[in-house]
Amino acid sequence: MLYYTPSGRVWFFYFLMAYIFINLIGTLALNQAGILGNAQTPYIRGLFVASIAFGTVYIAGPLYLFNHKIKFYSEDIKFTSTIGIVIFYSLLIGFINSNSYTYILSDLAYLIVGLAIFLLTRFGNIHFDINKNNLIKVSLLTAIAILILEFAFGWPSVSLIIFYFALFLYGSYLGYKKFIFINLIPIILIAINSNRATLMTLGIMIIILVFIMIFKKKFGLLAIFMYSSVLLLILAILTFNSLLNHFAYEILSSPLGMRIYSMMEIFNPNVGGIDFSRDITISQRLYEVTAVTHTLGSNVFYWLFGYGLGGTLDMSGTLDTSVANSALLGAESVHNIHLLHGAMLFRYGLIGLLILIIFFFKLLKISIKTVDSTTMIMSLAAIAIIIYSIPASSFFVTEPLIWFCAAIIITRKRILKPTH
User: Fold this and answer.
1) What stretches pass through the bilayer (predicted)?
2) Who contacts 67 (Cβ-Cβ below 8 Å, separation ≥6)?
């Protein structure tokens, strides 16, 4: 089920152990130190980047160079050169604008480490073979790992959750009734303890899956049921607010109830849409978009190429005190931009945003055209990462799974249909 070269095996297991150890042990240690929630993120991400950089330079890199000949194929060149061009011009603009060196370094480190993950995964020929015969086993192991990490250690692994969603969607695509029945309880348990971004991701991915099934002419009874359920849910949110209000208040004590209630109020005509005084997270994101457009101003160059790596925004007028308090350089120089399109536009310009859009539709096209189960699962996972990152852009750059997905998709393509 898991394949790799001898050097690839060393890299894969080093990466896996570093990721688990830093996230798990780091979460426990920071909890004991009184650093909780999102405040842990910079520490854990920094340690992970450092561990991958160390592993690349001193372990995986030398092994790859000495143990086998590295080959670049056209897909590798296209992917690497695209990322390389974005890194080059955004780094140059960052220095020209005298952006914070601290943030320039952190932005650059995430991109280079991500590119290293992609290349080492490709050169190690690391890939999976997930099919109907082992789908139930893989999904159950993933679900059990998610629930153990969540309830026993307090670490909700978003990477595993998104991968599990991709497995569940693929099983639904197959119409695999036994798989769906076995995974109903795990996915409900995961959903109940999920945040709003996770629920949004699952809902949108179900709709995307239905359209994929339409294009693949695999629109059976199960797809009709799923599509009808999604439409009814949307209709209920838009129309039957009183019923949903009652439902949400009944389960408001659970995370799921609070998320449903927050999303429901966006469409509630009785409150006129978003109540900024009650949902500060949404108002903060809208405030950030305004700050981005104000900073870019009427400068066409900035709109095309962005403000560069390390760019910051003046958010001294924000209502979200947590943003101002957590900013390393103060509220006048906030680096984090929550909305993905806002972050891409600000740092990399319309060119960077266009590359992301092309990447998204390329993944969608692969999901529609591929006949390989692993390729479809990894494509769905990558699409889910992009959707999850829409309200939390930092996840897109720092999430290693998307680099793995890109590498494995290319590897599977070359294995199934080699080109020279």
Assistant:
1) 12-31, 43-65, 77-96, 102-123, 135-153, 159-176, 197-215, 221-244, 345-364, 371-388
2) 5, 6, 7
Residue 392 CA, distance from chain mean position: 8
**What is the distance between the alpha carbons of residues 284 and 319, in angstroms, rounded to a whole number?**
7
Residues 353, 209 share a domain = yes
Please give the backbone phi and psi of residue 127, each rounded to the nearest 5 degrees, phi first: -160, 170
Is residue 284 domain-resident? Answer: no
| Shared-domain flag, residues 36 and 119 | no
Pairing of strands 2-3, 127-128: antiparallel
Spatial CA neighbour of 206 closest among 173, 177, 178: 173
Residues 59 and 79 in one domain: no
Considering only CA atoms, which of 11, 276, 268, 278 is closest in space to residue 124? 11
Boundary-marking domain end, from 35, 54, 70? 70
* Amino acid of residue 149: L
Residue 15's CB is within 10 A of a number of other CB atoms, namely 25
Q: Are 367 and 379 in contact (CB under 8 A)?
A: yes
Domain contains 152: yes
pLDDT tens, position by position, for the chain (420 residues)? 777 777 788 888 888 888 888 888 887 887 787 776 666 777 788 888 888 888 888 777 777 777 666 777 888 999 999 999 999 999 999 999 999 998 999 999 999 999 999 998 998 888 889 988 899 999 999 999 888 888 777 777 888 999 999 999 998 888 888 888 888 888 878 877 777 778 788 888 888 888 888 887 776 665 566 556 655 554 554 444 444 444 444 444 444 455 555 555 555 555 555 555 555 666 777 778 888 888 888 899 999 999 999 988 877 766 666 666 666 666 677 888 888 999 999 999 999 999 999 999 999 999 999 989 999 999 999 999 999 999 888 888 888 899 999 999 999 998 887 544
Do residue 59 and residue 108 come from a single domain?
A: no
- The answer to whether residues 257 and 108 belong to one domain is yes
Domain carrying residue 47: 1-70
- Round to whole Å and give the CA distance between 290 and 158: 29
| 404 and 363 in a common domain | yes
Instruction: List phi, psi (to 5°) of 334.
Output: -90, 130
Cβ–Cβ under 8 Å, residues 312 and 102: no
